[in-house]
Structure formats: C-alpha cells, structure tokens
Specification:
The complex is a heterodimer of chains A (333) and B (331). Chain A is mainly α. In chain A, 74% of the residues lie in helices and 1% in strands. Chain A has helices spanning 3-32, 39-64, 72-89, 95-120, 124-143, 155-159, 170-188, 190-200, 202-207, 212-238, 249-259, 271-291, 295-316, 327-332; strands at residues 164-165, 168-169. The longest helix of chain A is centred in the first third of the chain and has 30 residues, at 3-32. Chain B contains eleven helices and 14 strands. Chain B has a six-stranded parallel β-sheet, sandwiched between helices. In chain B, strands 7-6-8-9 form a four-stranded parallel β-sheet, with helices on both faces. The longest helix of chain B is centred in the first third of the chain and has 22 residues, at 2-23. The chains are: A mainly alpha (333), B alpha/beta (331).
Chain lengths: 333, 331
C-alpha cells in the first residue's frame, strides 16, 4: 500500500465519524425536543442548509488549492441584490432568466478574484478580503441603500425556491443537482483531480504539467458562480433583498469546510465531508431555537459544539509523519 | 488707482466669502445605525426638509455599513475633526459611544440622540420617536386584536442587546401584567439578530415549540418580514399572525398575503425632521435642553424635555390593509 493510498483511506474515514456525530446530535436534540426528529422537521433542516452546503462545496475547491475565498458571502449579497433589482425592473421574465443572470453575475465576480489570484499572483486572502469590501460596497451603490421588498418582486421570482416538485422544495432540488456535479467534477475529471495535486504539492503539480494558473482561475470563477446562484436563492427564499444579506456568512462557510475535514493547508478534503460539515452546522442553527435556551447561552453553546466537532475530527485522524521508507521495509529493519 | 480698485474688489470678495461662509455655517451631522436602512433613509429625508426650511444648514448624513458601536465611534472622531456644529445620533449602543460624544461636547459640539438613545451623560437631549410605554402598549393591543383577545403570543426581537427593543419588550411585559390582558400568555422572547436566516429559524422554532401560538410580535424590520415569510411557507396564514414594528414598503407584501394583519411605526420623516430642527435650535443657542425646557421644532410643534433630558415626538401609527398601499412607496 502506497502512502497516497493510506492517506486516501484516512481521509475517507472522516465521513463516517462525522455522520455518527450528526446522528448522536440528532438523538440528543430528540431527547430534549422530540418533535424536532420528525421527517418534516428534518427535511426542513435539509432545505434550510441547502445554500450553506453549496457554498461550502464551492469554498472547498478554493481551499484545496491552498487559497481562501472570503468574498463568497459578499458575492451572495451583491448578486442577490442585483437579480432582485432585475426582477423589479423586468418582472415578466421567466424564472430561468433570473437564475442564469445570477450565475453569470456571480461568475464575473468570481473571475475578478481569479484574475488577481491566478494571473497577477496576489495572495488569495488579500484579494478576497479586498473584494469582500468591494462587493459589499457595490451592494449600496446599485441599490442606493434601499431594500427590494416582497411586493416589488414578481411572484415567480420569490415562489420558485419553496415550490415543491415530487414533495420536495426546489431549493433542495437545486442542491441535490449541484452537489453531485461537484462530486463528479472532483472525482472523475482531470481538472478536478488536479486540484488535489495543486494543493498537495504545487511544485510537483507544475512538473507534471498541470496548468496551475488556468486551474486557479477556474476555481475562483466556479466558486463565484455558485455564490451567484445562492444569491438568487437567498433573496427569493426570504422574499427580501436587504443590504446586509448574509453578513459574516463566509465564516460559517469556512467552518463547514473545516468541520467537514478540509485542511486549511490545502490538498485535503472531500465533497461528502463538506456536505456533512454543512449539515452539522445547519442542524445546530435549526435545533438551537427549539431548545428554548437563553440567547446568550446559544452563542456559546454553538461555538463549543463546533469546537468539539473539530477536536474530535482532528484527534481521531491525526496526520501521520511522512512515510519515507515503505512500511514493510521499516518494520524489517 | 487701479491698484486701489483691485484691492477694494479683493477685500469685497473676501468679505463676501466670509459672509457666505457664515450663512452656510451650521453643519449638522446625522449619524445613524447603519447605511442601507430604509427607516434612516426616510429620517434623512426629514432632516433634509428641516435643513432646507432653516436655510443656512448643511446636513451631513453618515453611518457605518454595519450597525456597530465601533463604526460609529470612528465616525464621531472624524466629525469632531471636521468641527461640525451638531451631531444627531441613533446609537448602536447606549454606553459605548459616551467617551466619544463627551469629547465632542467638550469641543462645543451639540450632541443629541434620537430613535435609539445614548445614556444621559453622553448627550444633551434624547428624542424618542414616541413614548416607549405607548409603543409597548400599541404592540400588545395589535397582538390582542389579531389573537382575538386571548391565547399564546411570542416576541421575535433583533439582537439580545438592542437598546430600544429591550425597553419595548419590558413595556410589553408591564402591559401584559395588567388584569385585562391576563388571557394573553407571553410564552417566549427569541432573538433573530436582524438577519433573515436566523430570524426565520427562530420563527420555525417558535411554531415547533408552541403549536397553539397565535401571534408573533416582532419589534424590528428584518424580524417581522422573516417571521411573516415563515408563516406563509409553513401554511400558517390565518392561524399565526405576525405584528410589530415595520415599514410600510417592507410589509405591504406580507399584509397582502394575510400573514400580517396590522403593524405600527412612527413616521421616520417626521423624526428626522424634528431631530435636525432641535439640534439646530440648541447649537444656535435658541434653546436649551434642561429638564422642563421646551424647544420649538417647526411644523412638529414644541418638544418638552422630561426629567432625564428626554422628549417624545408622537405616538406610533397603525398600518393595515386599508392604508399600507398608500404609504408603501413613501418609506
């Protein structure tokens, strides 16, 4: 068994551990609030977490390449406001037009990040911290600081995410479509696989001929596009586009990645892990309100639970020292 | 001769510029909780109206992008450096701004707070949009009307530290303690932090924990909209009603859906107008804000200053299906 096989096995083992943790959490919540553990309520949690799951997948791609995208939530806010304004001005468009515009606007913002990171070569944290402020500022510029309210959005715009198809809301269907696409991309395409190489060992990746700049650009563009989609879903779902949509949400997204086993150092992470990480956070966000605790405790508790998850995760999967000699040779000597 | 004339022209020009500078001299800064808040945009309109009416006032409208005390302190320091004549503040924290505003007052700048107040030592006057007691009573009255006089009600507020929401919640509790409200049962107070996702989750939590819930009172704009959306998504229209404080533009859609029967708000245009007018009067020395004083404020009549340097403008106004559409394009 080679070192890379071994590591793959270890990273693969994260998901069952996290899934177990989630089940334990559901049981604990169920003891305190039995009504929470119904199919209805749990599918509500799943729907509510759809946006976080998609954003976390997008963020994972970036973190895999040793980067970080702090501007994702700002992109959500800008694109959300932009398409909401579009729907206000052109209420007769079909819903597909709003979704496609959201994807495109998000893509442009993401490509802007990609340009500075991949082509100019500025560190991602600097670029995306800058664009975080920039996109948030632009929200005020395009909206003039005004909200787009429910009666100003066409019905078709705001109804789409929560309308059901085969018993499940469209919002969940979108996630159920997007996430397997991420999985296929990461596991069954050359471009997707190469992201692990870029994050794991950039120099080696260059030597084997991976076009690092092109891949980096692509990663930020994809992340932006998904954020744009989520911008539409967010404003439509809550039927309001206000100037502080998703403020601070980038940290929740990054937390979902970390809990899901993505290494901030790059090169390690899986889509199922990240989805579970997002579910874990979504579960906490939805369960805390039904517990009836003081709001001051709630914040501390959710922080503590996240910390526990990360500690358990990192302890049970402590990274081993690099194997220089093959295992059988090492034991032989 | 030529030189004398040019000298005369030059000095005349200097006099003229001095005179016009004096005419433009009163600079009033309106510092609000955050940018992009429809309520304060309307207050700005009112402030501008007062500035135009008074003539020689320049109104500077400013705010941090997120509603934090830190952001406001930074702006206050900037305004001190610019040496404005007066600062009118809606504070993100009742005490954190005090050192900064005291510095401003020490430099002769008039400081008054409006809407969300600063504690007494940090300002000369606090202008309440209404009387806190009236706001509390009004919301309980609306909740009682929606619930048909009895049943379970809950409150969905902004952050747990928000100054004025907490005062109103206290007033609501006092009103509920009265014998004639004994059949209304306040089951919980939850906090959605003025974010739609969190407020929505809290609303769902209330539905789950209290199946007989009749009314959610949300004394904050993001909260009331999110709660109304949750009521609609969960098919609870007609069973759970949402009421509280919101702007007509933000609530019109939810009144149409039936999730909201009535809600209340004072007129933010009048509030901005009154605050700016009062700041001008104090800064110019036309009036003082000692307890017992009264300050004339143009079309809004006269403010009377109470014991703690506070003054109330008017009582909140109720909006429902009959009038919300007339106001939704105004603020």
């Amino acid at each position: 068994m080679t070192a890379s096989d071994l590591r793959a096995l270890l990273t693969r083992r994260r998901e069952p551990a996290l899934a177990l943790l989630i089940v334990v959490l559901v049981v604990l919540i169920g003891i305190r609030a039995p009504f929470f553990v119904s199919i209805d309520s749990l599918s509500g949690v799943l729907t509510d977490t759809s946006i976080l799951m998609m954003l976390a997948c997008a963020e994972m791609l970036v973190i895999l390449t040793r980067g970080i995208d702090l501007s994702l939530a700002a992109n959500v806010a800008f694109t959300g406001m932009a398409v909401a304004l579009l729907s206000m001005s052109y209420p007769e468009l079909p819903v597909v037009a709003y979704i496609v515009s959201a994807l495109l606007i998000g893509l442009v913002l993401g490509a802007f990040n990609g340009f500075f990171v991949a082509i100019i070569g500025i560190p991602p944290i600097v670029v995306t911290l800058g664009t975080l402020s920039m996109f948030r500022g632009l929200v005020f510029v395009i909206s003039g600081g005004e909200w787009v309210n429910r009666h100003e959005m066409p019905d078709i715009y705001q109804m789409f995410p929560m309308e059901t198809f085969l018993g499940l809301p469209h919002l969940l269907w979108v996630a159920v479509t997007v996430i397997p696409m991420f999985w296929l991309f990461m596991n069954h395409t050359k471009a997707g696989r190469s992201l692990y190489a870029i994050g794991g060992n950039p120099q080696a990746a260059r030597y084997v001929g991976i076009p690092i700049e092109a891949r980096l650009f692509m990663v930020y563009a994809i992340a932006g596009m998904i954020a744009g989609l989520c911008g539409y879903l967010w404003t439509a779902r809550f039927a309001v586009a206000y100037t502080e949509i998703a403020i601070g949400f980038e940290l929740v997204v990054i937390a979902a990645c970390v809990i899901g086993g993505v290494s901030i150092a790059g090169g390690v992470g899986t889509i199922p892990g990240v989805v579970l990480g997002a579910l874990f956070l979504g579960l906490i966000a939805n369960a805390l309100p039904v517990m009836g605790w003081s709001p001051f405790w709630k914040q501390a508790i959710s922080g503590a639970v996240i910390l526990i998850a990360v500690v358990l995760n990192s302890r049970s999967h402590k990274r081993q020292g690099k194997l220089i000699v093959r295992r059988d040779e090492a034991t032989a000597s | 001769m030529k030189r004398i004339i040019s000298l005369a022209v030059a000095s005349a020009a200097i006099f003229a510029s001095v005179a016009s500078a004096q005419a433009q001299d009163v600079r009033i800064a309106m510092l609000v909780k955050n940018l992009g808040n429809g309520f304060f945009d309307a207050a700005n309109k009112g402030g501008q109206e007062a500035a135009d009416e008074l003539g020689n006032v320049e109104l500077i409208f400013t705010a941090p992008t997120a509603p934090t005390a830190e952001g406001q302190i930074e702006i206050i320091n900037n305004l001190i450096a610019q040496n404005v004549d007066a600062i009118v503040i809606s504070a993100n924290d009742p005490t954190a701004l005090i050192p900064a505003t005291q510095r401003a007052m020490a430099r002769g700048i008039t400081v008054i707070s409006f809407d969300s107040g600063i504690a007494q030592e940090g300002r000369q006057m606090q202008l309440n949009p209404s009387n806190n007691e009236l706001i509390g009573v009004k919301q309980i009255q609306m909740a009682s009307d929606a619930a048909g006089g009895s049943g379970e009600i809950a409150i969905l507020s902004a952050t747990a530290q928000a100054t004025n929401q907490n005062i109103w919640i206290d007033e609501m509790r006092k009103e509920l303690a009265n014998a004639n409200r004994s059949s209304l049962n306040l089951v919980d107070v939850v906090f959605g932090d003025d974010q739609s996702d969190k407020s929505y989750q809290e609303a769902l939590g209330l539905f789950a924990r209290f199946p007989d819930l009749k009314v959610i009172i949300a004394p904050t704009t993001v909260g009331i909209a999110a709660a109304a959306q949750a009521v609609r998504d969960e098919d609870l229209v007609g069973k759970v009603f949402v009421t509280g404080l919101g702007l007509p533009s933000e609530m019109a859609g939810h009144v149409d859906s039936g999730a909201v029967e009535s809600f209340a708000i004072w007129n933010p245009i009048d509030l901005g107008y009154t605050a700016t007018y009062a700041a001008f009067q104090i800064a110019q020395g036309n009036a003082t804000a000692e307890p017992g004083d009264s300050i004339p404020v143009g079309r809004m009549g006269t403010l009377s200053i109470g014991d703690t340097g506070e003054a109330a403008m008017a009582e909140p106004f109720t909006y429902d299906a009959s009038n919300v559409n007339d106001f939704k394009d105004i603020f």
